Amino acid sequence: MKRIRAGTGAAAGPAAGANGTLGGEADASAVVLNSYTEWEPLREVVVGSLSGGVFPGWQESMAYTVPEAAWRLCREEGGLPLPAAHLKAAEEELDTLADVLEAEGVTVVRPDTVSHQRPFRTPHWASAGGLYAGMPRDALLVVGDIVIEAPMSWRCRYHEADAFRTLIKSWFRRGARWMPAPRPQLTEELYRTPGGAESPAAERWAVTEFEPVFDAADFLRFGEDVVVQRSHVTNEFGIAWVRRALGAEFTVSVVETDDPHAMHIDATFAPLAPGKLLVNPERYVPHRLFEGWDILPAPGPTLPPDWPMYFCSPWVSMNVLSLNPETIVVERQERPLIDALTAWGFRCIPVDFRHVYSFGGSFHCVTLDTVRDGGPAKYLAS
Ligand code: DAV
């Protein structure tokens, strides 16, 4: 089970790095947030929790990304618990992932347990409940020593960062920079009405430019470069906010992807090491930033077509987690992917994760790497 909760153990203080994994030269306990890439050696990570998760209350903008088979469930069961047996199996997979990471020498911390079943409202709208604390990658963006709380556009996710607040406060007290994005209003003006967009390009997306919104999972870190996709949950205003919040130390670049359901970039690109980029062959659009990089098109997912997928596509098969530039956690049944990565020189650690897939993500989505080695080096072409 969850041995390290928020605010205890390594997350709370000088025990951080006490397992010796930080090397010894530096004062390990001083490293609180330091994560500049998706692949440098991983020292500390948040693993989400699906405990108490509920179906998201329906809003029309979800039709752009949620598989059609799940629309009825969200419309009729928003705020009601996710299917119990499947959820229990998924929670066990998350606990196993935490065990595997610890066995690899990574410090694992978990969110607080909060109720996701409570309805809530603002002056403008009401939500039947929340969602879960399963996907910290969506709600929080760590760049260097900064943690940004994302202004997410699904109304049910309005309070999602709460489960991580004990952790965030602990990081802040120990020196991290804490930047909540402007609280979004999420009024009707934010959501596209067909024909109502300000330009043909804007017509493509579920969210307008009414206010800054983004999900953190639309961003990827490459040292001093941060790459982002425009999506049905991330608008230009949100990208501009992140660019200015991060300041001159970082360059935030928008990359085009060919994904009609775009929501989160991490089943489209997975940078695994300097110069090694795993891509979704159905969505990848070449970009000058990746000039000189080896590009590996990911083999297709192995998920049976009748497996329940409530919130995302089976391409979460490539939503892997790098432990270092040679080691990757991959779903055990994604054999073609494991074979391709092994042939590319990686050690793959297989972990069962199909029940977690059903709830919207895989290893990258359910984690938030807070401490990795390395700094803001230059990896991408200018
Ligand atoms: O459906 O490919 C997966 C990432 C969800 N957090 C998709 C998006």
Characterise this structure.
The protein is an alpha/beta fold and 382 residues long. The protein has a single domain, classed as L-arginine/glycine Amidinotransferase, Chain A. It has helices spanning 9-12, 71-77, 84-103, 136-139, 165-173, 236-246, 335-343, 354-357, and strands at residues 42-47, 107-109, 120-121, 126-127, 140-143, 146-149, 177-180, 219-222, 225-228, 251-254, 269-273, 276-279, 294-297, 321-324, 327-331, 347-351, 367-372. The strands form six sheets. Strands 2-1-17 form a three-stranded mixed beta sheet. β15 (327-331), α7 and β16 (347-351) form a beta-alpha-beta unit. The longest helix has 20 residues, at 84-103. Bound molecules: delta-amino valeric acid. Delta-amino valeric acid is lined by residues 217, 263-264, 266-267, 312-313, 315-316, 319, 360-361, 365.
